[in-house]
Amino acid sequence: MKSTFTESKKTNQSHTKTKTLVVSAMLIALAMVTSMLKVASLPFGGSITLFSMLFICLIGYFYGFRVGIISGIAYGILQFIIEPYVFVPIQVLLDYPLAFGALGLSGIFAKSKYGLLKGYMLGVFGRYIFHVISGYIFFKEYTPEGMNEVIYAIGYNLTYILPELILTTILISIPTISTTLSSLKVKLKGA
Questions:
Q1: Which residues of 96-105 are buried (b: 16+ CB within 10 A; e: fewer)?
Q2: What is the DSSP letter of 96?
Q3: Within a 13 Å sphere around the CA of 158, how many CA atoms are in the beta-carbon half?
Q4: Over the stretch 56-72, which tens digit does the pLDDT of each residue have?
Q5: In the chain, at which residue ranges do the beta strands (DSSP E only) sit?
Q6: pLDDT in the model for residue 110
Q7: How far, CA to CA in Å, does 42 sit from each of 38, 48, 49, 86, 159?
Q8: Among the listed residues 41, 98, 34, 43, the one whose alpha carbon sits nearest the alpha carbon of residue 69
């Protein structure tokens, strides 16, 4: 009897891990596709896309911040492979795996009220911080003369992060969408 219970538990854990992997892969694929639907692109990297960050944040919201961060890092590596912008190797680390991995921080609020909204904002803020650091360290030579380099890095990165943050915040604040994503989270965790 004990052996049957143990085998059943292992099979269930394996099923859960497989489902998590499959759903995460599908959301990463959706993020990749939507990242190519650009509303605007900036000259030194960065673009406003149609909700691409949301799909990575959903992974954190559905499965927690560990799975979210790992998925975000994987997504960042894919972004680098598809559309690399290389200045120096350490900049690649900041702008791709670390910045996109930060989107997985969305899972920190997964169990709280308005968890997706709060998590999305935290994840996007984390990504933004990595891009600002990278911008200040590696792209300050592009700062217009007479302008503070930190202010320039903050402003430059806000020009593409903020519009997508606002658009996605509006989208996930729509009650029907919010309720649907919450129900989907319960089904994915319970099934």
A1: bbbbbbbbbb
A2: I
A3: 6
A4: 999 999 999 999 999 99
A5: 38-41, 47-49
A6: 92
A7: 10, 9, 12, 15, 9
A8: 98
